[in-house]
Design a protein that fits this description.
The chain has 3 domains: 202 residues, FAD/NAD(P)-binding domain; 113 residues, FAD/NAD(P)-binding domain (3-Layer(bba) Sandwich); 106 residues, Enolase-like, domain 1, CATH 3.30.390.30. 31% of the residues lie in helices and 27% in strands. It has 14 helices and 23 strands. Strands 1, 2, 3, 4, 5, 6 and 18 form a 7-stranded mixed beta sheet that branches. A 5-stranded antiparallel beta sheet has the order 19-20-23-22-21, with helices on both faces. A hairpin with a 2-residue loop joins strand 16 and strand 17. Helix 1 packs parallel to helix 9. The longest helix has 19 residues. Bound molecules: flavin-adenine dinucleotide and nicotinamide-adenine-dinucleotide (NAD). Nicotinamide-adenine-dinucleotide binds next to helix 7 and strand 19. Flavin-adenine dinucleotide binds next to helix 1, strand 2, helix 2, helix 3 and helix 9.
Amino acid sequence: MENFDVFIFGTGTAGQLVAKECAATGKKVGIIDIREYGGVCSQRGCDPKKLLLASSEAFELSKNMKTDGIAGALKINWRDAFNYARRYTNDIPQNTEKDLKKKGIKCYHGEASFKDSHTIILDGEEIRADHFVIATGMQPLSLGIPGEKYALTSGEFFNLKDVPEKVIFVGGGYIGMEFGHMLCRAGSKVTIIDKGDQILSPFEAFTSNLLEEESIKMGINIIKNAQVSSIEKIDNRYCVYYAIDDQIHQVTTDCVFNTAGRVPSIDKLNLALANVVTNQDGILVNSKLQSTSQAHIYACGDISSKSLPLTPLSSIEAKVVADNLNGKNRDLEIPSIPSSVFTIPQCSGIGLTENQAVAENKSFHTIEKDTSGWFNNKRINSPLYGYKIIIENETHKILGAHIVGPEAAEQINMFAIAMKADMSFENLKNVIFNYPTWGNDIKSF
Ligand SMILES: Cc1cc2nc3c(=O)[nH]c(=O)nc-3n(C[C@H](O)[C@H](O)[C@H](O)COP(=O)(O)OP(=O)(O)OC[C@H]3O[C@@H](n4cnc5c(N)ncnc54)[C@H](O)[C@@H]3O)c2cc1C
Ligand SMILES: NC(=O)c1ccc[n+]([C@@H]2O[C@H](COP(=O)([O-])OP(=O)(O)OC[C@H]3O[C@@H](n4cnc5c(N)ncnc54)[C@H](O)[C@@H]3O)[C@@H](O)[C@H]2O)c1
């Protein structure tokens, strides 16, 4: 029986980091993945998405500058954009595995599951470890409706070689909005159906509503407060049925995506046999990221109950787990987390929304403005730019910052620094920034 100091499930951002840091201190490390190596971010998430988005960005800028310096009709060639993204991502699995092996880590493939809290079984063989790390991430939630099998997943979006004439996204969260914007610019007639009354519900309503209005102007059909009840295949097309106030409606489409959220990937691990406790957020962990029921089993990244499912959080958590396994006795401390939806324009936020500040009984005031007419936005003929900042009355500290605009994802990083450094809003505005830049606009917020 193979025996390890540390055995890791999952080769994404979190799993790889723990494996490398533990191997670097001389531990005997094993790692396994049920799919190709590399995880969601590099294969089916952040990176291929941003690569595909590059042509949408180029398209948008040239479309907006059409009568102001750019001549000729532009078109996104989806197949070229797809091949471009693939060129970057294709080699990552084998390079990741090569790199892990070079560092002395034993690499496995397949579906392993726990036999007891120190033993797993893979293809009938037992593997034992002193410590386990579960970093298996998340997977699309099941819609639980007839015809669900016809809905494609976000991973399958990255196999889409041609632009569908019509496409429906069930769910107007991060993924539905990002993919919807891309396909709309590439020529699809996009419909987004969401069960809630606000798309991008974790984001501030002011910025999310502005983005929704702009998305509708672009031609995206957004249907809210709608419960999708079934999907039917008719010849080569799909009919999606949904209810609003008990009234059944239907839309026909060439392609449907399930973008209704993601759930922890724990179903294949047999965690009950290892006495590892879970809930709907993932594996229950303490501040050291140990399972609350089995201290020698850690969880990090999307799968841990502590984390928002974002790449930077997966790295932070993995580092805490690696440090603890290497004897450093660390607790997870999470600062305010910036997050962005990579639509065009982008929608970004950090800290509290206004509703959350009210719920937390904060004494605060807000400033908000539609700044679409400001110079930076006008310069590129972008249609939308706006912000809302939540400021604590007594300390003038930033409780939350929310921006929608072409460079909102970069601007929000400035707020991340200010909030980490406990700066007041005035002090952030007193910083001298380059002119004329998007960062410098913050001085006028
Ligand atoms: C479409 C999309 C776009 C995204 N864009 C962004 C973005 O722009 N910015 C951002 O911060 N975040 C983004 N995210 C989220 C980000 O990808 C995740 O937070 C991050 O990848 C999580 O890393 P992880 O290591 O925890 O898990 P993962 O990267 O999911 O890795 C988990 C690994 O475990 C494997 N696995 C699963 N089950 C088992 C099992 N039973 N046994 C063995 N292995 C298993 C999986 O195959 C996978 O390789 C996006 C996500 C999606 C889906
Ligand atoms: N740019 C980024 O950082 C980025 C991009 C993509 C994904 N992610 C991460 O991945 C996670 C998952 O993204 P996601 O877009 O799948 O989920 P999400 O939670 O962001 O959005 C899901 C949406 O689907 C709706 N919904 C749920 N069930 C539904 C149903 N049955 N019918 C209609 N609508 C339904 C919800 O109301 C919600 O608006 C995000 O929370 C985020 O952390 C991040």
